[in-house]
Amino acid sequence: MKKKESNNTGIGLVLGLSLGHGVKHVGQSALSVIGPFLKVSLNLSDVAYGAIFSASNVSSGLSNIPAGIFSDMYRKKIAWFLAIAMLSIAIGYFLLGTIKTYPIIILAVVLMGFGQSFWHAPAFGTLAARYPNKKGFALSMHLTGAQIGNTIGPLIVGGLISGIVIRSIISFEGFGWEKVSVFMAIPMIITGLLVLVLFKSAGSESKGNWSFDEYKTRSKGLLKDKIILGLILLGGIRASAHTSFLLFLGVYLKEVLNYSAFIIGFHIALITAAGIISTPIMGMLSDKYGRKPIIMIAMTLMSIFLFLFLIFKTGIGLIVLISLLGMFFFSVMPIITAATMDRVPEGSEGSGTALNFIGMSVVGFMSPLFAGFIYKIYGFDGISIISGTIAVFGVVLCGLLPIKRVV
Fold first, then answer.
1. How confident is the model at residue 203 (pLDDT cuts 50, 70, 90)?
2. Domain tally for the chain?
3. Domain that holds residue 309
4. How would you class 81 by CB atoms within 10 Å of its CB: exposed for 0-12, middle for 13-18, buried for 19 or more?
5. CA distances from 116 to 49, 60, 158 (A)
6. How many CB atoms lie within 10 A of CB 360?
7. Does residue 5 register a pLDDT over 50?
8. Does 367 map to a domain?
9. Which has the higher per-residue pLDDT, 118 or 366?
């Protein structure tokens, strides 16, 4: 007998969680604009600045472990886990804006990193379980929410920091990065509360909770699957290229091109704006034609565009190239996740998602620190080369992996 669908089946759960994911990424992307001003305010070196984001990546990776365990063992509590993720980000931003010392800033970004990844296993796992025949589309829609957040977040934050003047009708001088950081805690708290109220049924498709012994047995099976491990590595490679490039794009725009916070936000927004359209399209194509060809095309174009930043360093050329990169930079991630979900057994979707994001953090946690050394010596050209080279490794690995879509 076909299982009766819960109240939030249909498109409601996808849209609701995608909206929440978008708000989370408004906060996540805000740090890319706040970061360069924080760097100047505290007179941080390139390496010390990169170390902040490495700390965030370590925390982000570690949070996937409890997120995966709890998501599979307590499927009826998904809404609570999502709320905890948003609260962690809120506390991090409050600390970032109120106590400007390096140790507290590290603590703040650790809390943010924890919350940013603690969201993924409950949300992605629930969507993969609820829509087993449309994983690519469901996960890509969820990432479309992230793309929207990543697009509007830098614009909003850049405008709030530097101020906006629109034909003398709207005019203010800006609030400074500290006040904006505190402000960012408010939408995170509100979103966490709304998730608790509106999506109590998230996880209702589960037939029951797993005991810890059952969880360990199933997790060991996932870790023995070489293709899953390869996909985890592939996700980590993509994340390394993404993080290394995006982190120092903002620094380059401020310190070399001397752009304002709003213009920096505009350029960072471009890197995800095109993905709002391309992400769901890529998801649907991967459902129809398989994950591998879509991943291969996206990673190949990503590597080409990254190397082209050696040529197009300013003006219209920079804007166009950032937009082209944005069509694939973030959009390929849900396809890699969907490929992993294709291989995990029913009931282990949370763990499968967590493993993907752990891989991103384990492989990528040193990339901000390493990128700091590269930027200090070779500038933005070095970032372009190292990011493009990492993406090429991803193309090679994808070509070697026997990825087959489970129908």
1. low
2. 1
3. 12-400
4. buried
5. 19, 7, 21
6. 30
7. no
8. yes
9. 118
